[in-house]
Amino acid sequence: MASLNSPTLSRRSLLGVAAGIFGLSRLTEETTRGAESGGDGAFNFAFLTDIHVTEKLRAAEGLRACINSVNALGAETAFVVTGGDHIMDGLAVDAAEVRAQWALYDECMKELRLPVHHTIGNHDIGGWAPKGTIQTTEPEFGKALFAQKYGLGRTYRSFDHNGWHFILLDSIQFDELNKEYYGWIDDAQLAWLAADLKQVGQTKPVIVVTHIPFFSVWSQLNGDPRKGEGPKSLVNNAAAVRKVLGEYNVKLVLSGHGHVYERIELAHYNRTTYIQGGAVCGLWWRGKVMGNPEGYGVVSCKQDGTFEYEYRGYGWV
Hints:
Elements: H1 11-18, H2 25-33, E1 43-48, H3 59-71, E2 77-82, H4 95-109, E3 116-117, H5 144-150, E4 157-161, E5 164-168, E6 172-175, E7 180-183, H6 187-200, E8 206-210, H7 218-221, H8 238-245, E9 250-255, E10 261-265, E11 273-277, E12 295-301, E13 307-313
C-alpha cells in the first residue's frame, strides 16, 4: 500500500483550490473565532462526527436540528470538534457533486454560533475510489480542498484550550494499487506527532481526534468474535501510534467512522479512554444504529485533568 500525504500540501494543489469556486471567507471566519486559548479552567466542547450532509434524505434539515441543539448547550461550551465525514460522499462522485455537498454543508454551518475545528474523514476526500470520476488535475481531487477550507492548509494539526492540548489527526491514506483508502497514520505525521507531544510535555492533558478508530469491537459484536477488521475499518498501524501517545498524558481518543457509540477503556492500563462517537446522521439518515439515536457528544474537561463524556440525541425523527 502506497501512502500519499505530507505535512503540507503542494503549492500547485493549494493554488488550484484557491482558484476554485470555494472562497476562503469561511476559513478566515473560523480561524478568527477559533483562536487558540491559554489559561486554565473547566469547559465543554461538542463532538460532531459522521454528519454526511446531502440534499437527499432530509439530511440538511437534520443537521440544522443538531446545530440548534448545540447552540442551546450554554456558555460553558467553548467550541465544536468534528470527527470527519462532513459530506455524504466525495469518493465516488464527480467534482460538481462534491462542490454541491460542501456548499450545502457550509450553508448549514452558518447557523452554528461556536468556532469549529475540523477532522478529515474518508468521505471528505475527492475521487479516492475505484468508481471515482474526479481527475487528479481537478482541485476537488484528494485532500487539498479540505485542507484549504477547513484545516488551515493541512490535514492534521493541534491547538490548546484552557490547559488542554488537542490533536486532530489524518487517519486516511491511499492504496494506489487498488485505488481505495485505508486507515493509516503515515511516517511524516507520526514524526510530527512525536515532536508536537514533546513540546506539550508529559503532564498536560491531551485529547486526540481521529476519524478512523484505533480500536473497535463492533464487528465482533455482529459476528464471529474472532473476526478481524478490514483495512478500511481501523487505523492499521494503531500500535505504532499508541506507542507514541503512551508516553504522554493522553486522556481521550475520539473517533467516528463506524456510526456507533462505543467506549473502550482498561482501568489500569495507559489511562486512555477510546470513544467512537456515534453519528449525527445515525444510520445514514435512515434511523438509529443499534438503538442509538442520531446525536453528538458533549465532553466536559475539568480543571483537574479529568473529563466526562455524554452522548446526546437531538430529537431527530
